[in-house]
Amino acid sequence: MRKTPIILPIVPSKTAALLQSGLAVGLCSLSYWVLGLWVGSGITLVVSLLLWRTLHRQVHGVLYLSKRDTAIYGRWRQPYGELSDEVTVRCDYLGPWLVGLWVGPQRLWLWPDSFSRSHHRLLRRLYHRAGH
Length: 132
Known about the structure:
Keywords: Membrane, Transmembrane, Transmembrane helix
Strand content: 25-35%
Radius of gyration: 19 Å
Number of domains: 2
Number of strands: 6
Distance between the termini: 28 Å
Mean pLDDT: 88
Low-confidence stretches: none
Organism: Halomonas citrativorans
Transmembrane segments: 34-52
Order of helices and strands: EHHEEEEEH
Protein name: Toxin CptA
Helix content: 40-55%
């Protein structure tokens, strides 16, 4: 008998965006100060493009997690409501606030503002192994 899947509605994280933007501003300021205007401008352009790409590629959607035997499987809900193919979901970082998952080949960092506290608690219970 299959258990009811855990449904995680995930939104883009503002915390991650703020931290990455702060690091980018620090890097650009340091490059202006140490390397000069021309090199600093080039670095600012490259860092801005990378930051834009990172922020617009943040994962969002609804992830359905189900546990069978010893493995955990996940499926994304696609735009028209159907579910994607089932892939294995591994947790390689389970911190007090930040959770790192591999959903198939895709890397997913879940920040505290990516989903609700109750969903965070369910996910931690799913992956927490007592004594390890």
